[in-house]
Structures are given as structure tokens and as C-alpha cells.
Amino acid sequence: QAVVTQEPSLTVSPGGTVTLTCGSSTGAVTSGHYPYWFQQKPGQAPRTLIYDTSNKHSWTPARFSGSLLGGKAALTLSGAQPEDEAEYYCFLFYSGARVFGGGTKLTVL
Amino acid sequence: QVHLQESGPGLVKPSETLSLTCTVSGGSISSYYWSWIRQPPGKGLEWIGYIYYSGSTNYNPSLKSRVTISVDTSKNQFSLKLSSVTAADTAVYYCARLKDGHWGQGTLVTVSS
Prior knowledge:
Structural class of chain B: mainly beta
Shape of chain A: globular
Number of strands of chain A: 11
Radius of gyration of chain A: 13 Å
Distance between the termini of chain B: 39 Å
Helix content of chain B: under 10%
Oligomer: heterodimer
Number of helices of chain B: 0
Order of helices and strands of chain A: EEEEEEEEEEE
Largest interface: A-B, 22 and 19 residues
């Protein structure tokens, strides 16, 4: 089964910009993996931020954006806010399976 | 507004079968994919599988031999059964309609004698 890799932890300053990445053990991540990004805060259910690489939901703050970057899926946060401190998970589609990344703990400090 | 609610026993004995139901309200279960995801305490998310309203399924290969997901469109519910559970199956179990961003609140299932 494919392994999806994320940075274990990242730190961003308030108002700063940070990019979280999502790689695949099978090779480059493409739009055909339909990358999703989820945000989870302690004690809460995950919340879907991005689907199909770059599509947002109505509740997704405009400061979050999804893309493909250097063979990986990427989630960019521009203008970080204290409330963005959370765990972020990517999720990729493979033929016959779906796989979550291990998560990135984002600290806003 | 679509709402998902998981229900089922919070405690299951080792070697027994874990059974959970997700009730969908505020919308029809038809024409969508419905997923189960779990999260062991302090760990990351694990995809268990999904079912289409028509009944077609897709399971995590690592759990496939023990998992069954079914749907009851008359009750607007879908269900998860996980057999031969061990302590490693202790987790918060979520039901979700992932693409539209609808998640249940999750339910903790503990496997212990």
C-alpha cells in the first residue's frame, strides 16, 4: 500500500506564509490523486478544507490554497492566524484505496 | 444542512465484532459516497473504506478481510462492521461524506475485556 508523507511539524509566525506538502511513495502526486486537505483541532472532528487539489468549501478561509508543487500536493497558508494552529492531514486517491498522510502539526508562534 | 451521527457500543470485547451505524439527516443518502475513518488515541487518521449508495464498496487493503460496510437507503443509514477486533482497533470512528465536507462528531470505541 502506498505511503503518503507529510512534514511532522512546521512553525509559522502570525501573518506569515507557510506551505505544507504531501508526497507519495509511488511517485509524483498528480491531479489524478485528487488531493484533499483536512484540518483538525484538539478534541474536534476533522474539517475538510480543500478537495480535488485546489477546490475550497464555503467555510474554507481565503488564506488557504491548494496546489501541486514539485511533484507533491501543497497546502499554502498566507497570513497565518492564531486559530490556524492545528493538525493538517492530506489524503490521496489510489486505484483501489485511499490513504491519509501522517499529518503536520502546525504551530503559529 | 446535512448532519451525520455515529452510534453503537463504546466498548467491545477482543475477538468480537465492532458494529457502528451512521445516520444521515437533512439530506438523502442517495447519489453519494459515504466513508468510515478512524483515529486511534493520539494518532493520525486512517481510512477504513467507503460505500456508494447503490451498495458498491471499497476497503482499506490492510482491513479488508475484517471490514464490511453496508447501506440502508430506507433508513438513510450506513453501517460498519469490523470483526475479530483487538486493542489496536481502539479508536474514534468517524463517518463522513468527504467531498462535501460533512463529518460526524466521531464515537470512541474501546476494545477491552
